[in-house]
Amino acid sequence: MLTAPAQASGGWLALAETGEVLGIIPARGGSKGLPRKNVLPLAGKPLVVWTIEAALAAETVGRVVVSTDDEEIEAVAREAGAEVVRRPAELATDTAPTEPAVFHALEQLECTEGYRPDAVALLQCTSPLRGADIIDAGVRKLFETGCDAVMTVTPIQHWYLSGYLRSGDVFVPEYDYASRPRHQDMPQKYRENGALYVTRREALYRYRNRLGGDVRVVIMDALRSLDIDTVEDFALAEEVLRGLGQ
User: Least C-beta-crowded within 10 Å: which of 109, 134, 142, 216?
Assistant: First the structure.
């Protein structure tokens, strides 16, 4: 079921040059690590609202939809200006992957309205420091390069050589002690930060995944890449936002 927003969404500028982009924000009601995480107040706003506002402010996103199974999240999302697609319970379990919820939202919009966007911007609400500028950069890169998908990454700042533990505290290296490389000789590596995935609709269905084919990146700094998963993450994000005057 699709419900309309409480207020009209903005951000229509530049759609002609990038194509029609649908912003989808998955927001389940259940959260084991941080209960009711998506509606907890962060610097004066429910967590999900930070992502809704960023998506609505993006010049390249035509519509913003929150996919949820939760009545409170639905009410908060609509009040913030997003549309809502009610997600079936089987797509909102702890083990359910994100892609089926994305396909469900797309199919609901196509069945009820005949709406078929050119691309989807998948926005996790656990990345509240990702702003409209990052969303616009990702969308523009998708259309300017002709690639299949764009994701945000952040540089890995701390060089390390990894291994695992056996029998409690016996270190088993995954590298050769005798040929340990120097820090300055190691190539810069990046990690997927989960803040933004922009995927062409055709590629999404072809690969049945948010990523596939020709994938490009938008690089974000470590601070804005903060992902909310624990109470400590939440407290850190609040301090950063207050420091930025938000």
Answer: 216
CATH number at 120 reads 3.90.550.10
Number of domains comprising the chain? 1
The question of whether 180 is a catalytic residue gets the answer yes
Domain assignment present for 133: yes
**Range of the structural domain that residue 104 is part of:** 2-153+191-243
Question: Beta 119-122 vs 190-200: how paired, if at all?
Answer: antiparallel
Distance CA 236, CA 234 (A): 5
* pTM score of the predicted model: 0.88
Q: Is residue 128 part of a domain?
A: yes
Report residue 48: phi and psi, to 5°.
-60, -30
Distances (CA, A) of 2 to 132, 139, 201: 24, 24, 20
**pLDDT per residue as tens digits for the range 38-82:** 999 999 999 999 999 999 999 999 999 999 999 999 999 999 999
Residue 125 CA: distances (Å) to CA of 142, 175, 190, 214? 21, 37, 21, 25
Catalytic residue (one of 140, 166, 180, 210) = 180
Structure tokens at 227: 């992902």
Identify whether 170 is part of a domain: no
